[in-house]
């Protein structure tokens, strides 16, 4: 009988060791699948964020900082500053909104308008564009991109932050871009130009 008890203990120990190895492999596979699903979620969601922001910014007053912050927050599905749900590290600060003019008469070359060259208010933009639709300060398009907020000048891609810290993925998120035609830019119909 004692030899049979030893065999049962040995086989129980072997089952435990085999189970531990199978569980580890299973958990690694599950974590990998979850991480890949999150990567796909991020790629698709960032494109949606830029499309939402472009549509909102086309009708928001670019001279009103609170309105522009509300556009960025709404784009990342929030009512206040913060992180995109399941989208670490992307926040509303990563949403970069640029206003574009079209090149020379009849051209299609888009050129960003610097903050200093933007009209004083949306009503002034309407006047400028009616005078010359190809003026360098006539806002014709709104471009939204996802950029690293630490880089003020150029738009650099954001590094992907893995959901599980032990999964190292040398991946950068796409610089999702959406361009929309400038609409009212927040100017109500009939508003007089500002001084």
Q: How would you explain this protein's 3D organization?
A:
The protein is α+β, with helices and mostly antiparallel strands and 195 residues long. It has helices at residues 2-57, 65-75, 122-131; strands at 95-102, 110-112, 141-146, 177-181. It has a four-stranded antiparallel beta sheet with strand order 2-1-3-4, covered by helices on one side. The longest helix is centred in the N-terminal third of the chain and has 56 residues, at 2-57. The mean pLDDT is 88.
Describe the secondary-structure layout.
Elements: H1 2-57, H2 65-75, E1 95-102, E2 110-112, H3 122-131, E3 141-146, E4 177-181
Structural descriptors:
195 residues; alpha+beta; four-stranded antiparallel β-sheet; 3 helices; 4 strands
* Overall geometry: elongated
Q: Per DSSP, what share of the residues sits in E-state strands of 2 or more residues? A: 5-15%
Largest sheet: 4 strands, antiparallel
Give the oligomer, counting copies of the same chain as homo and different chains as hetero. single chain
Head-to-tail CA distance between termini: 102 Å
**Continuous helix count:** 3
- The beta-strand count equals 4
Mean pLDDT: 88
Helix residue percentage: 25-40%
Strands of the largest sheet, in order across it? Answer: 2-1-3-4
Helix-strand topology string? HHEEHEE
Specify Rg, calculated over alpha carbons. 26 Å
Structural class: alpha+beta
